[in-house]
């Protein structure tokens, strides 16, 4: 009887221990924003792990340094992870730092991962048995490991953000078309369906999202030489030669703020193309080619905001800080902020003067005589009385709610200039077809004097004036930021 009781109690203790452990694991694996509304991701890429290499200790030390220093809520490994035999033992070794620190981790596969005698399906079958792994094989689509990770709200079980993981596959089956493969139509269709479901569940508003994959999209080539791109570019973009259409779908669905890739070890830059950030991670593997220091890209989300901050973490410290949606990187202590002006009795709207004549520069408007004037609810071409040969001069007080660095743009046909507090911020002057120019300025909270000059010469009329900031997604300047005084 006593023996039976002892065995029964022992069994109950073991069962209780299992339930507690499983519950703790489940709670740890749930991705959730903190009470301060933050969620941090560490992107590791291109480990090129070879279990027989002495450099494994350097790679592991780098991962451990990042996990200890940054304390991410999630680690995402974006391809070319275990690239030599024995593959199973290699994956077990790679998983160890995340298991030991109880860090949830996920994987997207690269073009080399299936080379050491293991298929993409077999890799995920192995990964899904490992502690703290939160990825999955996903549905039956091209490749393996197409899945969405939901980040829950800090205050409920409602989904507050989504991370899309794509298999960018390996090499094209038609080398005449492209060497590297791409994300295929069935994968894109899956993403669009998922995105629409999340948007519907969120009362029709797209959820802030990110996308992770190994091979960069061909659109990365549009940002590599942009002045606003942040980071190092030491090699070209080794994307597929064909445009898969994924970027267009990301743009149309309006949820993905940024795409994060690996593959090109000597690139770690980030920039914005068509309102979507495109970023390379930081090479992590000591056995991977490249001259950049090994490390990780960090991404920090803010619950409820369509924004994120990102930076590179290596043994040398932090570098290349970047904010989305502003596209800004700066040392706040070195920024000179323009003070707000003191003004009372303002009313909503922007005052304008309308001119007619053949202008070639906005400067000519200062000498011209207006033929009409008034107040508009926003900055647009609505006051124009003819299609060609006219000009507009808008003046307003721009209300800034939060001190920060702001980026402004004009998209115009023909010329335009934007001034804030008598400082030229955007110079898009001269006769030209529709084009965009932008600039940035640091502003204290409060009212700031805004002036926009514009002229239209012949054929084609466009004027859009926009703003973005650390907490403002790029948008035409809304009417509730514009005020005038009689």
UniProtKB/TrEMBL annotation:
Domain PA14, residue spans: 345-481
Alphabetized UniProt keyword annotations: Signal
Sequence intervals crossing the membrane: none
Single Gene Ontology MF annotation: hydrolase activity, acting on ester bonds
Leader sequence residues: 1-22
PROSITE patterns: PA14 (PS51820)
SUPFAM superfamilies in UniProt: Anthrax protective antigen, Metallo-dependent phosphatases
Name the record gives this protein: PA14 domain-containing protein
Source organism (scientific name): Sunxiuqinia elliptica
